[in-house]
Amino acid sequence: MRAFIALQPFGLIALDERGELLEGLPFPRDAEAISNLVRDREFLRRSLKELMGRINADEIVVNDARLKELLDEMGVHASLSPGERPFSSLRRSPLRYASQLWGDLKQRDYLSLLNEIGILVTRARVREQLSSLDQQVIKAVDFVDHSNKALNMIAPTIREWYSVHFPELNEILEDHYDFIKLVSIEPDRNKMREDALRRAGFSDKMISKIIEASRNSMGADLSEVDLQSIKSAASSWIALYEARRAMESYIEDLMRRAAPNLSAVVHPLVGARLIAIAGSLERLANLPASSIQILGAHKAIFMHLTKGTKPPKHGVIFQAKEIRSAPKSLRGKIARLLATKIAIAARVDFYGGGKYIGDQLRREIDEKIKRYTEAMSGEG
Asked: Which of 248, 278, 254, 251 is CA-nearest to residue 339?
């Protein structure tokens, strides 16, 4: 005998081939309780086990992927076929089956209960989605991107502003961080001291250059109020820079928990940016390698489609050191290799149930890149 097991808002039921009820386990007639039970895997497992003990069937057919997964885990073979005739009958007349489990039930009350269950389940799923690790990765990447924009916009302004007082420093310290850090420590060029600069991490050679230039500067003398204003702006920039750096460390840690295989294949920050552009780890896991390879190259793709320019060979994954440091002739090939391994890693991270193959994927990447490089050297 074939038995058709269905998960419904009113309970877990088994039907025969004519759509008649064989057995049923009713849920409590309460929307909140039902919304919790249908998401509780352990409860569903126990209910399935109890229902299976009540029926004698040669073949089991289910209408829900979760039921098939749970039965597979229990060692019971089941086929997923929601289009079968008994399930169609159930969809046409759910109130008839609900009344068999719950007793007399009016359609208005049943529809009202369904509406309430739908709202509660949706809220719970949204809450789960928002609290997932990959969503935290996306928000953190968003913070880093906005921080980078702000830092890059503000840094030239601070340099130009301070150059009114100490223009020579622009030539001595080209790096934004070093320049603004010095301003945040001591904005008055006439008060710069070797011990303070040494504690800030500057080398003796650099300190001597700064001190000498400060003594012979052609910059204007600014009031204490002006200098303190510049120092405040510089300190705010440094604070944002440090916050961004701390956020990047947080992202790396988060990625090793949320996507350990992906983090082994590419740097966690590159993997995080791929997840952010895709929208979630699930979406990244469902993308083909060819799409992952050009993920983030929106402008280049647009120019290719509208102006006929060359199609892009890589998107965000160009930030991976394997591609950046490779000869131009190998970048496309390495990008394809990385995209393929990223696709595998993302799928294992999302669907693999904790399985780890990151080290194996990493070895395969290193071996193939070595062969590419050796082959190119042999041709040369």
From this structure: 278
pTM to 2 decimals? 0.68
DSSP type of residue 318: G
| 81-128 pLDDT per residue, tens | 888 888 888 888 888 888 888 888 888 888 888 888 888 888 877 666
Choose among 360, 147, 129: nearest CA to 244. 147
User: Which tokens go with 225?
Assistant: 């109020």
DSSP line for 326-371: S-HHHHHHHHHHHHHHHHHHHHHHHHSTT---HHHHHHHHHHHHHH
| E strands present in 209-309 | none
Which residue from 266, 263, 288 is spatially nearest to 278, judged by alpha carbons? 288
Q: How far is CA 170 from the centre of its chain?
A: 39
Backbone angles phi, psi at 284, to 5 degrees: -65, -40
Comparing 115-129, 190-204, 238-252, the range with the smallest average pLDDT is 115-129
Cβ neighbour number for residue 111 with a 10 Å cutoff: 12
CB 31 within 8 A of CB 115: no
**pLDDT tens digit string along 325-351?**
888 888 888 989 999 999 999 999 988
Please name each of the domains of the chain with its CATH number: 2-131 (3.30.420.220), 135-248 (1.10.287.4070), 259-379 (1.10.246.90)
